[in-house]
Amino acid sequence: MVQALLEVRNIRKAYAGVQALDDVSLTVAPGEVHCLVGENGSGKSTLIKTVGGAVQADSGEIIINGTSFGSSISVIQSIRHGIQIIYQDLSLFPNLTVAENISLSQMIEQGEKLTNWKRIREVALRSLAQIEEHIDVDLPLDRCSMAQRQIVAISRALTQGAKLIIMDEPTSAITAEDVRRLFKAVRRLNEQGVAMLFVSHKLNEVFEIADSVTVLRDGKKVGDYQASELNQDKLTFLMSGQNLEYKPFQFDPEKEGAPLLLETRRLRKVNQFHDIDLKIHAGEVVGLTGLVGSGRTELALSLFGLNPPEGGDIVIDGSLVRIKGPEDAKRHGISYLPEDRHGQGLFGHQTIADNVVATVIDSLRGTTGLIDARRRDRIWQEWIDKLKIKTPSGHNLVSSLSGGNQQRVVLAKWLAVEPRVFIIDGPTIGVDVVSKARIHDVIQELARTGMGILVISDEVTEIMQVCSRALVMRKGRIVAEFTDLQSVQESEISQVVAGIDGSEVVA
Amino acid sequence: MKTSFPKALLARHETYLALIIILFSIVLANATTGFLTAGNLLSVMRGGAGLGILSLAFFVALVSGGIDISFPAIAISGQYIAIRAMLAFGINSIWAAFGISIAIGIAYGLFNAFLITKFKIPSMIATLATFNLYHGALLEFVGTEAVNVGRIPTSITEFGRMAIFRFETEQGPLGLSIFVVVWGAAIAATWFIMRRTMLGRGIYAIGGDAEGAKRAGFRVTRIRYFVYGYVGFLSGIMGIIHVSLIRFAQPNNIVDTALLRVIAAVILGGTAITGGRGTITGTTLGVIIIILLDRHLIMLGIPSAWTEFFIGIVIVVGVIATHLRMKISRVRRGELVVDRAH
Amino acid sequence: MKTSFPKALLARHETYLALIIILFSIVLANATTGFLTAGNLLSVMRGGAGLGILSLAFFVALVSGGIDISFPAIAISGQYIAIRAMLAFGINSIWAAFGISIAIGIAYGLFNAFLITKFKIPSMIATLATFNLYHGALLEFVGTEAVNVGRIPTSITEFGRMAIFRFETEQGPLGLSIFVVVWGAAIAATWFIMRRTMLGRGIYAIGGDAEGAKRAGFRVTRIRYFVYGYVGFLSGIMGIIHVSLIRFAQPNNIVDTALLRVIAAVILGGTAITGGRGTITGTTLGVIIIILLDRHLIMLGIPSAWTEFFIGIVIVVGVIATHLRMKISRVRRGELVVDRAH
Amino acid sequence: AREERTADRQFQIAMVVKVEGVAWFDNMRLGIEAFDREHADVRAWQTGADTADPAAQVRIIEDLIAQGVDAILIVPNDPESLVPVIERARAQGIVVVTHEASNIRNADFDVEAFNNLEYGAHMASVMAEWMGGSGLWQPFVGHLTSTTHNEWVDGEIAYLQQNHPNIVKANRRLEENENQQVAYERSLEILRANPNIRAIMGSAMSTMPGAAQAIEELGLVGRVAAFGTCLPSVAGEYVESGAAESFHFWVPADAGYVSANVAYHLLTGREITAGVDLGRPGYNSITIQNNEHGVPVIYGQAWMSVNKDNLDEWRNPDGSWKL
Ligand SMILES: Nc1ncnc2c1ncn2[C@@H]1O[C@H](COP(=O)(O)OP(=O)(O)OP(=O)(O)O)[C@@H](O)[C@H]1O
Ligand SMILES: Nc1ncnc2c1ncn2[C@@H]1O[C@H](COP(=O)(O)OP(=O)(O)OP(=O)(O)O)[C@@H](O)[C@H]1O
Ligand SMILES: [Mg+2]
Ligand SMILES: [Mg+2]
After folding, report:
1. B213 CA distance to ligand 1 centroid (A)?
2. Which residue from B198, B208, B338 is facing A350, i.e. has the nearest CB?
3. In terms of residue numbers, what domain contains A148?
4. Residue C200 with chain A: CB contacts under 8 Å
């Protein structure tokens, strides 16, 4: 057997109240694509951080290419031995150029004292070429798109002669096309002997790319598997210890006589969206899908008053309204769950409980003007239970939660408002499959209480699972509507999304 | 996860401040004769009221995630313009004094807010600039002439002598100065706003995360206007308190001494410079510590030239202590593992 | 996506600063007689060298994502201690002067870095505190006595008169002051560090994202020590430049005038107060604008009391202009739709 | 009620100056120390803040009151801001004597080296003579709020208007914040803006060296000269170089000594009337005039004029300056 590139033995790591890693071992062979899966808070990010030296394990052993580093390794050691980590926030420098972002780490690692601009550009260009990408390397990074930044981060890892590239949810913020491109690059790297360890909650990606899979549950290892011996259901079961069943949501507003809550008429804004006619009835879940950049977020933002449209009408309960700011939207019963939850929706320094009740604190005021503490505690406790937020206490700070659990806090916070129209942009980004299903249930439950919901998602599967009706947006226009999701194939919708069917007409 | 009563108390920054005050008072009471007299304590509080009011203003701005260092210029502008206007028009009413000073304070505060919200200038830069703008304008357009006690309107000097709960002692009549009453009212108002209104929650929210607060439906711009307007309002009040205390108006007063003390008091009081955290109790205890130090170093035989040096040390030690205490409690809660650099 | 040459130039903040300088110079040349003389320009540059050097220091601290407002106290400490030491030990050498002043500057700078990195005190608070600490210590432990021209060591006054490229004119001999040479050297050194060394890249990197810089392998703490040490180093140099310019040492000098001007110059120069962005060209142009304004208001018939007011306006207008320009270019790039609150 | 002095108790007399660390008040300290030495029953000392800040002065005086001194001598930064604290001091039986504050409201006595208007006229006459009776001049004050400086300038202007109508003021009085660097920069500027200026007249001690430096730098020595109030140690070098022509002052040590003596007289129950000799040159035959608030103001005739001719009289044998 070839010597393992990375071997992790019996790692333990405890945070107060949580055993984040409990006797976890892992082996990555050269050139393999190894996938780490598990529910939110199962310890994936923590394991990665231990290997990268960002977090010190309590006990265990880390061995790279036969060299043992004991239970903890420093960042520099880890890099020197060919381990490259790309964190969820990418750790890039918005104020530096693309070239610098790609090349600097290598210069540091080589102990360079002076900057050689020519080399910086060369290294960057070569590295981009390695994965067949073209970005203007003199551009400041803050002028690059999210997907470009992802590419920059990967290129950076490549510059350092990485033998193992570790990525924490690399695909949660980029388009399907970029994912494909990324995977192509990954395969090319594998051929060169570079191994990959990555975390993803999108199981189809796991099967597409992974050679082997390690499953974590509650900080313990469930087992190592060859990807070929698994399928989606089996993997879900290994992760969660339960099987999932999907309950498609059927709802016909006309049959039910459901009132029209929100309607837009020829809503438009230059360069963003055009002639949008949209209807949301009480009790239905409308899906809105499309490629990244197709204008969905901009549309949602304008319904929430954060991006005033330039023309067209918004009609709520039959009367024309103008929504000039979030407070207007709130007054009309519209809530919006933002897509980019990285810090935006959360008050990081406050407790989980405070965050959950932040939006409803007003309504908790009794006749005395004092806040009804008991009701408040009940509300956040209820939401922590409902969404299974993994924490020892609601009094902990939000920043102590794992990525997926932070997402749930945001969701809880907005759901607690109990709006009439709820716009959810990317409800399950970074959420594990099981919780995803759970969140879908919650959304459908809410719809049954008469709420009108608009779900924005890249994932057609998700749209099919949670919605009763779906719209597809392309280049700022609604190009298709699917009223009966039971009778269409996923691939049909995907083709419209990608524009492959050539149709510009409403189906 | 309820913590038991004494433990919860121990975890609070305010407890430590109170302990420092008690300890320092014991030292003072033993080392000097003049400290523990009703007369001294009442006079110390009277003298500290201005600082206390400005500290509340600074506290509110910090909690909102901003900073306002123009307040000394606002206070002196309110004061000096009010006095000069009263003299010019022959008005002699304490209400007019407060009215003019507060109006100017609010106007200047709103102008700060305008710069900060409209042009998104970082508040420190904006208020540093307006500090010079307001003070420069005062010197240039209003004048530099000092107004002495003889010319200060009598309503103002009388206001300075007003007291409630008067009682007679061997050293003469004592009472709780009206200044302390105004300070108390400012504390109560600020407490009510910060703890009991949505506006106050909004101030904390925008200090924690402005973008999130906006999405949560808080009217961020409006809240900022309130914050800086309120700083101006309190500064205007302090301007009149100050002139009725020293019975002399000169356009360089306040500007020269207030800034450092106020910052020291508020930081010591545990308000986070990064916004979103801080309590009124902490701020007020911080003010008391600074006043005690400032007024009694001499009693302890420490020359007054040391004050500047000493306040510097107090800020450094105070901030370090706050940092260490927070770190310990964060480690306890299991939050702090990856040490983030600032 | 290359932009064409003139367009790229138009997008740069520095272009606008240069235009302002040219415009202002034309106004001055037409409105006054004394402006466009070699003597005046050389003397203005000589007088501005100290401000220029301090601005470089402040610029570096801002780029690193920190701030250091203790530099006036550091500069005066270096200056005054150097002079007093030279007098006390009968040393008369410009090298000794620079040596002592720079040593003190670096030591103080490193102490700032210690507080900031070790205790994670926000740099603004830390340096506000040490400002008072350093200045208070100087007054308390070194003294307050002024050293007049007659007692200033001759090596220092001679240094102040040194010039290169001397030439004779009708108004007497002219030359490029040694101060300007030192300033130029400081610009070159800072440029080299910031643009041509990994250290410099590290300073920009930690200003952009300190956590990311740490992960990328930059030694963040070490870089911070360098930054504040460098601020101290430049401040120490400026201390000696200053005393050889005015031939008079008094421990309240510099402290009373430098802070506002330096901040105004650097901000005007387009350095982001939030760190990570800024250029040396911009900073130097900012310095030139401030010097031109400061030195020629009287020539334009604007009374000297206006200076403070005027610099306030310059900061406000400068920051607003920068903001608007940035906004426009962001809208052009299609970034700015959702207006984010700060 | 003043307490009786016991044999082992000395009179505590404290001088509070505007600001510590400037030559002027360093010299004043010598007078206070001399007085202390000469009187066994007196402990006299000098103190002051680091910045010319009225509030700091109030604080120092409050400290002194708390210490229970017998007399406080004050050179006020801002006479009016001291009113309440002087009131408090006197209520406790402390003698308060001010210097350079002829408009003080409630002190026991104020000591002036001379009448300010007369002094201004004297300085202007020296300047006018040098200018040959015509040309531009520029007066400076330390702060626009300073009474004394402004009175001197008033005296100068009045004298010139009456006697030399061809001598014209270039600009309204400029403020230099008692800061030599500011004086230097402002002088450079005003000289460039008005190439015809012949004289700069300083009031604060920092003006002359600053102005002289600017004159030297612009190569104007001989054509322009600095005048005003200053000390040999500060201005001597510039008089020698010709950038400054002459300067005037009263000896701060003497003023300090005399102020202490006034307090000592009062503490020991002696009366002070016109013609009394207070023990220092220029104060041998004082006049007394009540100001508008009824405070008796003691005037001497104690001004010194120094130029190239008598500069060396102010030098010690080792070459250093006496003052
Ligand atoms: N802040 C912005 N300023 C200007 N244009 C923008 C901005 N954000 C997005 N756009 C443009 O608006 C269009 C729609 O973008 P939007 O973010 O709404 O897409 P989306 O369908 O929501 O995609 P995603 O899946 O990334 O959320 C795109 O052409 C994009 O380039
Ligand atoms: N700094 C911290 N302080 C306290 N607890 C922490 C900290 N970081 C992680 N944890 C806890 O450790 C556990 C594992 O978290 P980790 O981030 O590794 O999960 P994850 O598997 O990456 O989840 P996700 O899929 O949501 O990203 C969680 O219970 C989390 O709350
Ligand atoms: Mg994670
Ligand atoms: Mg989107």
Report:
1. 22
2. B208
3. 6-240
4. 115
pLDDT given at position A154? 81
The answer, yes or no, to whether any atom of ligand 2 lies below 6 A from the CB of A401, is yes
Give the structural domain span for C212.
Answer: 5-341
- For B158, list phi and psi in degrees, rounded to 5: -65, -40
Name residue A26's beta-bridge partners: A8
Strand-strand pairing, C172-177 and C163-169: antiparallel
* Dihedral of the alpha carbons of D257, D259, D260, D263, in degrees to the nearest 10: 160
> From atom 27 of ligand 2, which residue's Cα is the shortest distance away?
A403
Indicate the average pLDDT of chain B. Answer: 82
For residue C278, what is the domain's CATH number? 1.10.3470
- Least confident window among A155-159, B66-70, D85-89: A155-159
Residue-level pLDDT at A86: 84
pLDDT digits (tens, 9 = 90+) for A320-339: 999 888 878 888 889 888 77
Closest residue of B to C309, CA-based? B136
Ligand 3 centroid from CA A161, angstroms: 25
For residue A132, the tally of other CB atoms under 10 A from its CB is 10
Q: Kindly state whether residue A249 falls inside one of the protein's structural domains.
A: no
> What is the model's pLDDT at position B248?
77
Q: What are phi and psi of A26, to 5 degrees?
A: -160, 140
Helix (H) or strand (E) holding D231: none
One domain, residues A62 and A110:
yes
Residues A97 and A33 in one domain: yes
**Is pLDDT of B31 > 80?**
no
How many independent structural domains does chain C possess? 1
Half-sphere exposure of A342 (CA within 13 A, CB side): 9
Alpha carbon separation from C334 to A137, A270, D253 (Å, rounded):
19, 11, 73
Give the residue-averaged pLDDT of A418-429: 85
Residue C44 pLDDT more than 90? no
- Beta-carbon contacts of D207 under 8 Å, excluding residues fewer than 6 positions away, are D140, D142, D176, D183, D200, D201, D226, D228, D230
Q: What is the pLDDT of residue B340?
A: 31
Ligand 1 close to Cβ of residue A293 (< 6 A): yes
Contact between C119 and B310 using a beta-carbon 8 Å cutoff:
no
Handedness of CA C308, C309, C311, C316 (dihedral sign): positive
pLDDT digits 0-9 by tens, A107-130: 887 888 888 889 999 999 998 888
Substitution target in D185, D194, D322 with the highest count of C β-carbons within 10 Å is D185
CATH of the domain at A235: 3.40.50.300
Residue B8 has pLDDT above 70, yes or no: no
Q: Where are the alpha helices (DSSP H) in A131-231?
A: 146-159, 176-191, 203-209
d(CA B301, CA B292): 14
**Do A494 and A368 share a domain, yes or no?**
no
pLDDT band at B305 (very low <50, low <70, confident <90, very high): low
Tokens of B170: 């061997």
The average pLDDT across A462-491 equals 87
Question: Among A188, A205, A240, which residue terminates a domain?
Answer: A240
Q: Which residues, at least 6 apart from B198, have a Cβ–Cβ distance to it below 8 Å?
A: A361, A362
The pLDDT tens digits for B53-65 are 999 999 999 999 9
The closest residue, in CA terms, to atom 7 on ligand 2 is A400
Higher pLDDT, A324 or C222: C222
User: Do residue B338 and residue A369 have CB atoms under 8 angstroms apart?
Assistant: no
Tell me whether residue A325 is in a domain. Answer: yes
Number of separate domains in chain A: 3
- Do A88 and A51 share a structural domain? yes
**Domain stops at, among A391, A417, A443:** A417
Closest residue of chain C to A160, computed from CA coordinates:
C216
Assess if residue A340 is contained within a domain.
Answer: no
A248 occurs within a structural domain: no
Do residues A151 and A266 both lie within one domain?
no
Provide the 3-class DSSP secondary structure of residue D270.
coil
